[in-house]
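Sanity check

After download, print the first record. It should look like this:
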Amino acid sequence: MSDQESKPFWKEIGPIILGGTLAVVGGTLTSWFAFNLQNNASNFKAEIDRQAVLAGFQAEVELNLIKLKEPI
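Expected structure tokens:
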């Protein structure tokens, strides 16, 4: 009897199942991390845009106050 014939079934299929499981878990984690990073970047950009609009309004108000204080 050769080694191939006496090898148990689980020793042949085990590495395939392990490899498939690791591939699925790795793909899932990679997708989750990519989504999380993209979501954080989107939130950060939205916050910067909000602050830019507020700074623009503040500059406009300050300019109007300066013009009101100046004599004509």
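If your output differs, re-run the checksum step. Summary of this record's structure: The chain has a mean pLDDT of 89.
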